């Protein structure tokens, strides 16, 4: 069971019983404080007997017959001397303008707090309860009820006279009454009744469960949750009743309303009061326990529980034991629970104390989380509710969280949280950095230091870098790579690295880092030297980025040794900065690298390095023979005689064959193929490429005494040379491998050629016939001759202006027109005439197709 801590300001004279607080991880739902100020003064001389709560003020009744009006802080605003004995009940209407008071000596008073309206009555028995109509302020609702041995209803009638009427009697004293809307609920010795004031009918009777309990010692607690829901607490039993309308078909002689018990359950202790909170209940319980010392039953501290009602049971949400003054002497009837609906305030009244319970807000929730050292949850809660919290600041919670993590030794997490919590506050950042330095954890915070907006003092970053330099070269190198160079004084860090290199000159990590620092400092030459020494992959990026081509003119060999592919690509991409001649000159003593460069240059452009093609012959022959033949084929600037000489010296047959054929010495090339390579297929292929009859003759002569060669010729010669020439020259009796297959292939090739010729002939004939028909159709078409046409010879109009005169015109298929007399006389025997113009231009037949005469 969780205990609620008391929040109060105690005077030196106050003495309060204190108890130990149980440790619990469950957060309480309510917070508590004593109602002090005027209440403290009252209860030092008197004892509280009852209290009622309005949203504007409180009304407290005492055992000495006084009624005090208090503000919510407990300050006295008004005092009424009602009776010399105990005040039993105080009732207020909803407006808070009228009050009803009853006392143990039978006095009842109903009066206006702000008017002269007043009612006095004295009964011959103690009056336990009084309740004014909720809308008493209105003239039509000037009603109130009192309860002693009878339940009386007073109504103001004619001439402002009050008329009493008995609502109920005969079942003992009336112990409690609650009026809500048109319903009055009251409790007597037998149970709880509800009266409908509209129909003046009693609509229910809820009997008391435990009749063994004295009703005066364990009184009934009543509370209206809303206009139709009544909560009853008596002994250790709780019932929640709902008032419902009866269906018209069920009316008969019954009231038009009835009550249904929707929830019913029992509690562990005796109920002194109850109140609703959302869909849950707040229950004030009277507790008895066995004393460990005397083993006698005694009064314990009262409990305030929040429970969730269930149909036949309840679920406990929270439970707090309250330390009130004089709880050891109190009985169940001495405690009361009142509440303010609008603000969810709950007042626990006892003779010597008034405690206020209220729902915990976000500030209280954060307080509890901080108390339990749940800093991350507290920070999250503060961020979510930053507009509503008043007591806490997100930054303060965050700083406390960082300190807590540091104390636990979770340095990395603490440093990570600095990013979010410290934000852009440079002073706090610097303070935290120095704190991490004191505990030797600068490395932990280094990864999270701000690098842009905000930027800390250079000294902070230098301090971190020095810490890494002393113990972790790799970590130091990582920070240099990740941090912008303007965060710290580069000169100071460079000098520190140089000092460390004196102790360890070959440390590659420090050298690489020094090169990066030189780059930040724009001392690119020094950075380049280190990168080349280290053969670092970033050297080419550095050259490109900072245009360091002038610095590498004498370092080309180093670059090529490091990565020839990247170096060559870079040099060729920047020929305007480092010329081809300069590169070739620098590589003069490294011919293998020179070849790589010139080869790549040739691949890009066959003509740019033409002056070095003669040199490249030797380089290809020495370092890259597979690419020599392609080079010889693609180069138009290569001296053939020089190339032939080198190839013959090195006995490069294929290259020599190519050069001989290119120089026109095909027979020598063929001879080399036959003699050196002895490859008949390659020889045949070569002869096909040259397409020279003499070469075929030489090939046949060379092969005639070599059966394998003859087989190769027979298989491949059929489409280029008449096979009969070869067959006639074969000596009788010579054994030729696969001769039969070769002869069959020759016959098949011959048949195939015949079929191809016949097919081509058919296609040719068909095409010729088609074209002839097309030409005939074209020539049969008429030709328009009109006044706009002219004679191509005399250039005068082809038709005479006088249509009556005779004329003769010749029109050719080419559309040229002549007067008959303008055409020259043909010297040939044939009568066919040709167009002079088209014949002169060799444009084909232009014979006359039309002769017009008149």
UniProtKB/TrEMBL annotation:
Function as written in the Swiss-Prot or TrEMBL entry: Plays a role in vesicle-mediated protein trafficking to lysosomal compartments including the endocytic membrane transport pathways.
SUPFAM superfamilies tied to this protein: RING/U-box, WD40 repeat-like
Xref: Gene3D superfamilies: Tetratricopeptide repeat domain, YVTN repeat-like/Quinoprotein amine dehydrogenase
Composition skew (Basic and acidic residues), residue ranges: 1-13
GO annotations of cellular component type: clathrin-coated vesicle; cytosol; early endosome membrane; Golgi apparatus; HOPS complex; late endosome membrane; lysosomal membrane
BP GO terms, sorted: cellular response to starvation; endosomal vesicle fusion; macroautophagy; protein targeting to vacuole
Domain of life from the UniProt record: Eukaryota
UniProt main location, coarse: cytoplasm
Biased composition (Acidic residues): 14-26
CHCR repeats, residue ranges: 568-712
Protein name: Vacuolar protein sorting-associated protein 41 homolog
Membrane topology listed for this record: Peripheral membrane protein
Stated family: Belongs to the VPS41 family.
Matching Pfam families: Beta-prop_Vps41, TPR_Vps41, zf-RING_Vps41
């Amino acid at each position: 069971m969780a205990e609620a801590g008391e929040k109060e300001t105690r005077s030196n004279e106050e003495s309060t019983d204190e108890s130990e607080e149980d440790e619990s991880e469950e957060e309480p739902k309510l917070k508590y404080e004593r109602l002090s100020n005027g209440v403290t003064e009252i209860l030092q001389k008197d004892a509280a007997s009852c209290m009622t709560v309005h949203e504007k003020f409180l009304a407290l009744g005492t055992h000495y017959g006084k009624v005090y009006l208090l503000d919510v802080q407990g300050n006295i605003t008004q005092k009424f001397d009602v009776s010399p004995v105990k005040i039993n009940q105080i009732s207020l209407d909803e407006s808070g303008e009228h009050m009803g008071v009853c006392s143990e000596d039978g006095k009842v008073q109903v009066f206006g707090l702000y008017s002269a309206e007043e009612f006095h009555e004295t009964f011959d028995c103690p009056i336990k309860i009084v309740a004014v109509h909720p809308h008493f302020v209105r003239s039509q609702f000037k009603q109130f009820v009192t309860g002693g041995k009878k339940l009386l209803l007073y109504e103001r009638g004619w001439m402002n006279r009050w008329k009493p009427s008995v609502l109920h009697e005969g079942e003992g004293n009336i112990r409690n009454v609650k009026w809500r809307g048109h319903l009055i609920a009251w409790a007597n010795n037998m149970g709880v009744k509800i009266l409908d004031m509209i129909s003046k009918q009693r609509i229910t009777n809820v009997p008391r469960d435990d009749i063994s309990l004295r009703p005066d010692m364990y009184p009934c607690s009543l509370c209206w949750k809303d206009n139709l829901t009544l909560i009853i607490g008596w002994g250790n039993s709780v019932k929640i009743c709902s008032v419902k309308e009866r269906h018209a078909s069920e009316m008969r002689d019954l009231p038009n309303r009835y009550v249904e018990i929707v929830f019913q359950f029992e509690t562990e202790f005796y109920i002194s009061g109850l109140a609703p909170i959302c869909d849950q209940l707040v229950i004030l319980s009277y507790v008895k326990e066995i004393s460990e010392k005397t083993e006698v039953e005694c009064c314990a501290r009262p409990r305030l529980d929040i429970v969730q009602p269930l149909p036949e049971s309840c679920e406990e949400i929270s439970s707090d034991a309250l330390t009130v003054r004089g709880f050891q002497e109190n009985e169940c009837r001495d405690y009361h629970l009142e509440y303010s609906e609008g603000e969810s305030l709950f007042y626990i009244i006892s003779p010597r104390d008034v405690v206020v319970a209220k729902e915990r807000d976000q500030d209280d929730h954060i307080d509890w989380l901080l108390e339990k050292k749940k800093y991350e949850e507290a920070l999250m809660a503060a961020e979510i509710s930053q507009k509503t919290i008043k007591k806490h600041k997100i930054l303060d919670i965050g700083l406390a969280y960082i300190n807590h993590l540091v104390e636990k030794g979770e340095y990395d997490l603490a440093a990570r949280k600095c990013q979010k919590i410290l934000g852009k506050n440079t002073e706090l950042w610097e303070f935290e950095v120095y704190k991490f330095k004191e505990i030797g954890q600068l490395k932990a915070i280094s990864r999270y230091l701000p690098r842009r907006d905000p930027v800390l003092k250079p000294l902070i970053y230098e301090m971190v870098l020095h810490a890494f330099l002393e113990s972790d070269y790799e970590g130091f190198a990582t920070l240099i790579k990740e941090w912008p160079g303007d965060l710290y004084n580069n000169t100071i860090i460079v000098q520190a690295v140089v000092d460390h290199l004196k102790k360890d000159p070959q440390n590659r990590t420090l050298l690489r880092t020094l090169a990066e620092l030189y780059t930040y400092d724009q001392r690119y030459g020094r950075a380049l030297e280190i990168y080349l020494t280290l053969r670092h992959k970033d050297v080419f990026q550095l050259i490109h980025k900072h245009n360091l081509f002038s610095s590498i003119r004498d370092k080309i060999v180093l670059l090529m040794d490091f990565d020839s592919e990247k170096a060559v690509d870079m040099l060729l991409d920047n020929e305007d900065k480092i010329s081809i001649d300069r590169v070739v000159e620098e590589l003069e003593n490294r011919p293998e690298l020179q070849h790589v460069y010139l080869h790549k240059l040739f691949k890009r452009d066959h003509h740019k390095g033409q002056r070095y093609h003669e040199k490249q012959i030797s380089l290809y022959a020495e370092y890259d023979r597979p690419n020599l033949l392609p080079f010889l084929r693609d180069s138009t600037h290569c001296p053939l005689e020089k190339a032939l000489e080198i190839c013959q010296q090195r006995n490069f047959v294929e290259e020599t064959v190519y050069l001989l054929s290119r120089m026109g010495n095909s027979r020598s090339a063929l001879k080399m193929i036959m003699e050196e390579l002895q490859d008949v297929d390659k020889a045949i292929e070569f002869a096909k490429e040259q397409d020279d009859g003499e070469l075929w003759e030489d090939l046949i002569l060379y092969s005639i005494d070599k059966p394998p060669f003859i087989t190769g010729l027979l298989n491949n010669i059929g489409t280029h040379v008449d096979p009969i020439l070869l067959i006639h020259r074969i000596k009788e009796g010579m054994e030729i491998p696969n001769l039969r297959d070769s002869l069959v292939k020759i016959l098949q090739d011959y048949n195939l050629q015949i079929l191809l010729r016949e097919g081509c002939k058919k296609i040719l004939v068909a095409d010729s016939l088609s074209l002839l028909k097309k030409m005939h159709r074209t020539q049969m078409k008429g030709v328009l001759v009109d006044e706009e046409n002219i004679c191509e010879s005399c250039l005068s109009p082809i038709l005479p202006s006088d249509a009556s005169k005779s004329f003769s015109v010749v029109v050719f298929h080419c559309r040229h027109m002549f007067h008959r007399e303008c055409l020259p006389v043909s010297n040939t025997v044939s009568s066919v005439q040709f167009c002079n113009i088209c014949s002169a231009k060799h444009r084909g037949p232009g014979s006359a197709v039309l002769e017009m005469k008149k």
